[in-house]
Amino acid sequence: MSTVDDYLLNVNPVHKERLEAIRQLVKQLVPEAEESIAYGMPAYKYRAKPLIYFASFKDHMSIFPTPGPAVELEEKLRNYKVSKGTIQFTLQHPLPDELLKEIILTRRAEIDAAYEI
Fold first, then answer.
1. How far is residue 54's CA from residue 64's CA, in Å, rounded to a whole number?
2. By C-alpha distance, which of 54, 17, 16, 48 is closest to 33?
3. At 64, phi and psi to the nearest 5?
4. What DSSP character marks residue 24?
5. Up-side HSE of residue 1: CA atoms within 13 Å toward CB?
6. Res 1 pLDDT > 90
């Protein structure tokens, strides 16, 4: 796979819709983010730093926003399986768009802050 479109062609169709929605949120909130494939999954970099990655698995989907947003938003993520830099969700228990926006914008702010130093 060399593009996100290629990746999404091979995803469970039920997951594809949700992952495409995440893709569109990233493009809306961070239009300058660069889209690619990294580690075999869709990846977005902002200012040459990882912004967020996402992937589909057999029984769940995951986003990988790096550890910062998972720690900063820990209370809001308490009902999800979270490990260092990874947030798992399912179609039955999805991440709401507002929470996804907050995760993406939190990571963007982290990257921006690193450039202000």
1. 6
2. 48
3. -130, 85
4. H
5. 17
6. no
In tens, the pLDDT along 33-92 reads 999 999 999 999 999 999 999 999 999 999 999 999 999 999 999 999 999 899 999 999
Report, at the CATH architecture level, how domain 4-116 is classified.
Answer: Alpha-Beta Complex (3.90)
Burial, 65: exposed, middle or buried (Cβ in 10 Å; 0-12, 13-18, 19+)?
A: buried
What does the pLDDT read at residue 117? 61
pLDDT for 95 beyond 80: yes
Picking from 20, 40, 33, the residue whose alpha carbon sits closest to that of residue 97 is 20
For CA atoms 92, 96, 97, 103, give the dihedral sign.
Answer: negative
Tell me how far apart the alpha carbons of residues 90 and 45 are, in angstroms, rounded to a whole number. 24
Between CA 59 and CA 81 the distance in angstroms is: 13
Angle between helices 13-29 and 97-116 (to 10 degrees): 40
Indicate whether 113 pLDDT > 70.
yes
**Measured between alpha carbons, how far is 92 from 34 in angstroms, rounded to an integer?**
30
